[in-house]
């Protein structure tokens, strides 16, 4: 017997997904601190570091099951950390006003002993918030007023890059796709989301305004397709996306309360972003096209996320909280593209052609998060019938009324966990 899915049921299913705890997907692990943990750096699924407030740096060598506190080098808050191998790493810490003659500044620090010992530099009145090294010699610092510094000698000395065409807003993260091609992201709350781009090994940077809220997380699907997320405590979270390497960006507002502070993908389809102050995190199962927000365990604010591979992911946040990835949402395992039609059967809508109503039928062999949308021949979305809804195994009939459409050819598109299938429908008038 076919199951009809009325609108009220669809809405109820959507709301149900929002009330699920992230503890189904992420498990808290014990840590030896209650201080806020801000940024992470992992070499692989076993070895990683976390930097936090009041000079705390944690290290694990067994996949996050046990964490040790490294010897205190500074007592000020850490804002970023990066390691290239088991011994070589860098971090950024705030200088208190008393440390810098009444002005805020930054301590860039470097270790060649895996964090057991550090060497420090000092920048007065410059607030650096992002560090990124391509290799042991070439690195960049990004910070307040759009400041970008470069080193070619492992951080022994730093010099200004040519960013005369850049906007003067804070940089929150730097990431390179390869040695010549990289991005910095940031902005200012309620003013601008800014993206800086370099195509000459970081010697010159050019920026552009892309949205109204600052950006904090970036992911490369490939050299052309790039996704960034951000937000703030007022407007909430959103994304910008480019399909041409940064020449053009499209902005999408999620309508999700929270500030997306980081972004990491487990695979091409599944990605996660912690939403900081709201005590929630959000995930996508369709390469960032749709997102679902859920509460973090105990609604603790989370600030950073890293996946080292498809099986191992980590989050860190307030009160010393560290989470380890447990598995697919609701225990649902993935399937390959070759198995798609064995798991999902999409039938031709009936009647077809039609005016103005028809029905779209499909069969789910097992529970899946599902989206069903209507597109015109130019690829423009004209209707959303399901939006990332968890459907149980069974047969479904989704009614569709096209009274607002003009006559012509359209396509209905069923997307499930990053895979999709489409069929044609014809509207008569």
Topology:
Layout: E1 3-4, H1 7-18, E2 26-29, E3 37-42, E4 48-52, E5 57-60, E6 68-69, E7 78-83, E8 89-95, E9 105-111, E10 119-120, E11 123-124, E12 128-133, E13 139-143, E14 148-151, E15 159-160, E16 170-176, E17 182-188, E18 192-198, E19 206-211, E20 215-220, E21 226-232, E22 236-242, E23 250-256, E24 264-265, E25 271-274, E26 280-284, E27 292-295, E28 302-307, E29 313-317, E30 322-325, H2 340-343, E31 344-346, E32 357-364, E33 368-376, E34 381-391, E35 394-401, E36 408-416, E37 419-427
Parallel strand pairs: 1-35
Antiparallel strand pairs: 2-30, 3-4, 4-5, 5-6, 7-8, 8-9, 9-10, 9-11, 12-13, 13-14, 14-15, 16-17, 17-18, 18-19, 20-21, 21-22, 22-23, 24-25, 25-26, 26-27, 28-29, 29-30, 31-32, 32-35, 33-34, 33-36, 36-37
Number of helices: 2
- Give the class from helix and strand content and strand pairing: mainly beta
- Alpha-carbon Rg, integer: 24 Å
Largest sheet entry:
5 strands, antiparallel
**What is the arithmetic mean of pLDDT?**
86
Shape descriptor reads: globular
Walk me through what this model shows.
The chain has 429 residues and is mainly β. Helix content is 4%, strand content 48%. The protein has 2 helices and 37 strands. The strands form 9 sheets. Strands 7, 8, 9, 10 and 11 form a 5-stranded antiparallel beta sheet that branches. The longest helix is centred in the N-terminal third of the chain and has 12 residues, at 7-18. The radius of gyration is 24 Å and the shape is globular. Mean pLDDT is 86; it is low at 1-21 and 329-337.
